[in-house]
Amino acid sequence: MPVFSRFARYVEEVARRGSIRSAAEWLNIAPSAIDRQIILAEQELGVSLFDRLPQGLRLTPAGEHLVYNLRRWKREFKDVRLQIDDIQGLQRGKITLAVAEAIVGDMLVGLLADFHQQYPGVVVTIQVVGGGGVREMVLNGYADIGLTFMPTAYRVMRVEHSVELAPGIAMPPDHALAGRKSIGLRECRELPMILPNEELLIRNALDAALAATGVTLNAIAVSNNFALMKEMVFQRLGVAVLTRAEILSEIRKRKLAFVPFSDPEVSRSSFSLVTPSHPSSAASRLARAIVAAMDEMSDEDPT
Length: 303
Hints:
By secondary structure, the chain is of the alpha/beta class. The chain folds into three domains: about 5-65, Winged helix-like DNA-binding domain superfamily/Winged helix DNA-binding domain (Arc Repressor Mutant, subunit A, Orthogonal Bundle); about 90-165 and about 270-295, D-Maltodextrin-Binding Protein, domain 2, CATH 3.40.190.10; about 165-260, D-Maltodextrin-Binding Protein, domain 2 (3-Layer(aba) Sandwich). Helix content is about 45%, strand content about 20%. It has ten helices and twelve strands. The protein is elongated. It starts with a helix and ends in a 6-residue tail after the last helix.
């Protein structure tokens, strides 16, 4: 690690949280350790990095310039390390993958198993966060790859690949509707439905479509946990409103079938792979494997 790495993390966290105490709690260290590093840096640089305000700390113009460059140096150093690993045949190295909670599951397990066979010395760290957290980790250099449902391109982050995910119903493969190409919401009114709750993005799309069409579904269960929803389908309690992304592994193994909604009122979500503007070669190799799996999630041609 570079000699500035500990100081850089301290300053970044204080800048992000606006408080030494909050940063110390997040980093699990004593507040005095952070305060000491900041004071030493300010003495050495001859400028104040933070304005001490009653409501907390705020970066000064000099502090903003320092934090921007610390993040840039960190990204560049990470690229250098991974390029060296690439020269050595990726015998060792680290990749951090930030993923939205909805996509955690067998898909990632299978991808990592294949990747580890090719590059056994590369450690992949997976951080499960919300969609906004994925972007923040990539932008701040804490993640090499991000998988998010709410992509936004920034100057130092780019969308490498996107697929459109259509909501639909998941069911056992021997269900009477399993062979359908699509299904309308009105056809689902009498089905026992397992619905996502309001915490999940797919529920927003479903509620908007139900309001637009005037359809009321026969909900027998509501959950914010995709694994639980799938288990209820396995137990034949009903059919679940999901996308192909959540049941890709089960579709491959022919344990579940998926039929998308045909109603134009049901909006699709864009699921994207994001990286820093200059991803390392190791991250690019893992990203290519993820892209192939993403294309299996979509009923449409990939973008």
